[in-house]
Amino acid sequence: MTVTEPGVYELGDLFKAADVVALVKVLSGDTENYDCAVYKGEVVKSFKGIQQGTRIYFGPFLGDKLGYEYVLFLRNVADPITPKTTATASYGTIHYSKVFDQGYSSMETSYECVFDGKEIAQQCDYGVRVCPDYIKIPRSMPAFPSKENDAPFGCRWVRKAIFNALLDTLANPKK
C-alpha cells in the first residue's frame, strides 16, 4: 500500500485538471460488487464535459451520502470497470469517472446555518464544503466558519450560489 498526500490546487487549476465538473445527485452506491466504491448519480448541473441529466458512475472513495448532491471534479477512466462476479452485479460493466486528489475533488453540498449575517435567514443557506488547505478558493470568497473560529485545519462552507457562479465563470471565461 502506498500512502500519498493530496495535491494543493487553485480552484481554476482543479477545473482545468478535470475531464468532468458537475453538480451530481447521488442515486445509489455499490461497495460489494466492484474492487472500489462505485456510485451512480445524475448530473443536476454541468460545468464541463458532460450533459445535464446524464447518469454517471464515479468513485472510488467511501462516504458519499445517498440522495445528497456533490460538486464533482472527475477524471475519466479509459477502461470500463467490471464487477467481480456477474451473478450479483448491480450496474454491470460500466464507464467510470474517478474522484481524484485523494477525494478532495468531491465537495458535498448541504443546507447549513454557518454563514455570516445578523438574522437566521442570512445565516442559513445552501453551501459547498471545500477544504481550503488543499483546494484554494479566491480570497474574495468568504468561507465559514472563519479560521479564527475553527481549528487551523478543516473544511469550510462557501455559499453554493457564489461557488456555482465561479464555476460558471471558469466554464465560460468570455462571458
Give structural notes.
13% of the residues lie in helices and 35% in strands. The protein is mainly beta and 175 residues long. The protein folds into 2 domains: 17-107; 109-171, no CATH class. The strands form 2 sheets. Strands 2-3-4-6-5 form a 5-stranded mixed beta barrel. The longest helix has 12 residues, at 160-171. The chain is globular. The mean pLDDT is 91.
Beta-strand percentage? 25-35%
Structural Rg:
17 Å
* Helix-residue proportion: 10-25%
Number of domains: 2
Order of helices and strands: EHEEEEEEHEEEH
Strand order of the largest sheet: 2-3-4-6-5
Q: How many distinct helices?
A: 3
Q: What oligomeric state is this?
A: single chain
| Average of pLDDT | 91
Q: Regions with pLDDT < 50 over 5+ consecutive residues?
A: none
Apparent shape: globular
Main pleated sheet? 5 strands, mixed, barrel
Distance between the termini: 46 Å
Structural class: mainly beta
Give the tally of β-strands.
10
Secondary structure: elements and pairs:
Elements: E1 9-10, H1 11-17, E2 20-30, E3 38-48, E4 55-59, E5 69-76, E6 97-99, E7 106-113, H2 120-123, E8 124-130, E9 135-136, E10 156-159, H3 160-171
Parallel strand pairs: 1-9, 4-6
Antiparallel strand pairs: 2-3, 2-5, 3-4, 5-6, 5-7, 7-8, 8-10
